[in-house]
Description:
The protein is α/β, with parallel strands linked by helices. It has helices spanning 11-22, 30-33, 87-92, 97-122, 156-159, 170-185, 211-219, 230-233, 284-289, and strands at 34-38, 43-49, 69-75, 77-86, 151-155, 201-206, 239-244, 253-258, 266-279, 291-304, 310-316. The strands form 3 sheets. A 5-stranded mixed sheet has the order 5-11-8-6-7. The chain has a 4-stranded mixed sheet with strand order 1-9-10-4. Strands 2-3 form a two-stranded antiparallel ribbon. Helix 1 runs parallel beside helix 4 (97-122) and helix 6 (170-185) packs across helix 7. The longest helix is centred in the middle third of the chain and has 26 residues, at 97-122.
Amino acid sequence: MLPQQFQKITHNGVRGMILARLETGSSAWLNDVAMRMQSDQASEEYAWLGTAPALREFIGGRTPAELRELSFVVSNKDYEGSLTFKSKDMRRDKLGMIQIRVNQLADRALDHPAKLISTLIVAGESTTCYDGQYFFDTDHVEGASGVQSNSIVYDISDAGTGGTAAAPAVDTIAGAILEAIQQMYTFKDDRGEPMNQGASKFTVMVPITYMSVALLAVTSLLVGGGNTNLLPALRGKFEIDVVPNPRLTWTTKLAVFRTDDAAKPFIIQEETIPDVIALGEGSEYEKLNKEQLFGIDWTGNVAYAYWQDACLVTLQA
């Protein structure tokens, strides 16, 4: 029998490590900004129906309204991540390095949808969504909505809140967040009715360079000069979370997403949940290569959904 520090790691043990790690869940903010849709085929078509009509006074009989319909297709893609370990190392892993690497592989799989959604967010000013406009755009129009913008500019000089676009003051970030929320409150549906009048929960996604000021903007009771910080004072009205996202390449922008709507700004389409592949001890692969292979497969994709639940803010001095 091997000494305790050289206890052999079995391929079933490694597979169990991966499955246990996968059960810890995905990035917390994903479920706030994305709808998870199950898929059972190569692609799925999403029919975007227009909104129901507002009530009217009953005069002269009923006037049923037809729903506008837009559609788009999301095709699934196959993704994988794999590791190999020498069979002799499986017998000698006294420092637990294999478990560390296995956990990292599972973490990568859990983080993959967040990576895909982050790519969509960064590309939102140049990639179209269901209405044919860029996801973040200044001229969305649907039916009787009128022209609407979910890409706005916050002018630091006009607001007098301090700092620069690349290094804003706490007051500036607080003002930019409030302006985005105010903008979302103006959005109307295809029948000209307000869409976000009940919105109260929001996620603010910022690049790392904005992290400290954004966190202070939503938590600090006082700001420069000892003045009251408005966002914490509004906690009874709004719930605002800050998500620092290292994948954002912005230097003068932040995005605000509504998170208490049944609809969400993005879609995560999953044909399969992460599946563990193990070519372990006794397999033909191990016999030929004297190593064992472990992998994680995931089939799915991501897509833009409701731009009305998102607003991009560009800071300028």
